Amino acid sequence: MAAILELQDVHAAYGRIEVLHGVDLTVPRGAVVALLGPNGAGKSTLMKVCSGRMRATSGHVHLGGSHVNGAAPDALARAGLCMIPEGRGVFPNLTVAENLRLSGLAGQATTAQIYETAFTRFPRLAERYDQLAGSMSGGEQQMLAMARALVTNPAVLLVDELSMGLAPLIVRELYEVLAQIAEQGVTVVAVEQFADMALAVADFAAVMTHGRVVAFDEPGVVRRDLAELYLGGDLGGDLGGDLGRAMPV
Ligand SMILES: Nc1ncnc2c1ncn2[C@@H]1O[C@H](COP(=O)(O)OP(=O)(O)OP(=O)(O)O)[C@@H](O)[C@H]1O
């Protein structure tokens, strides 16, 4: 499978403190990749670098074979990469309809096309067309964030902590939608604390610790490796409660 997103020796820092220490990651076109790892491993930072919200201090980011280091988020969105940030990225004081109209590439689609894309996938949003986004439930807001991403017709969708603050049942529902989106050919990279939710829909799992990707394999293999490492105590402290609990130890 050809790579659609490729990172080579990517370093990134907040001020003088480097938090990505040479990330290598190859995301095959059409795959769903779960990006796992303990708190502070650098997963969100990596998502920010991939989506142009943060600049790598060195290394290479390629999207569809083009070098995209330093490209702005809107340029990357036009090139087919869209990110749903941690904490959803909806405008709470705007209605559902307004949020959709303001989505990344809205200028390229008619309002009718935008609504059709969003409401076909998420009928619940159609019922709440005029409701302020901030007054919806957490799950509905996450649906709106996903819908906003979808109307940009992305080739690559980056999702940071889909499960943030949501009940497991709703998270499962959202991952099912993500799996359907992936079935239509969208490449997905999902950062997730609840490893088992993401692994259930993933083709591959990447594990980050201490600012590097330390494992990349099929979910079953990564699950076993993580469990062994966890039992062995090597990564135990690092894995954190959620990932540790999610692993079959
Ligand atoms: N805005 C920031 N300024 C300074 N340091 C930051 C900032 N954001 C993150 N960091 C630090 O960078 C490191 C990596 O953080 P990051 O959020 O990328 O990790 P993560 O793997 O996504 O963690 P989590 O699972 O807890 O969200 C951490 O040590 C964190 O404290």
TrEMBL record:
Organism name: Catenulispora yoronensis
SMART domains cross-referenced by the UniProt entry: AAA
Identification of the protein by name: ABC transporter ATP-binding protein
InterPro entries per record: AAA+_ATPase (IPR003593), ABC_transporter-like_ATP-bd (IPR003439), ABC_transporter-like_CS (IPR017871), BCAA_Transport_ATP-bd_LivF (IPR052156), P-loop_NTPase (IPR027417)
Superkingdom to which the source organism belongs: Bacteria
Ranges where the ABC transporter domain occurs: 5-235
Keywords of the record: Amino-acid transport, ATP-binding, Nucleotide-binding, Transport
Gene3D superfamilies given in the database record: P-loop containing nucleotide triphosphate hydrolases
One Pfam entry name: ABC_tran
PANTHER family linked: HIGH-AFFINITY BRANCHED-CHAIN AMINO ACID TRANSPORT ATP-BINDING PROTEIN LIVF (PTHR43820)
Family, as annotated: Belongs to the ABC transporter superfamily.
A Gene Ontology molecular function term of the record: ATP binding
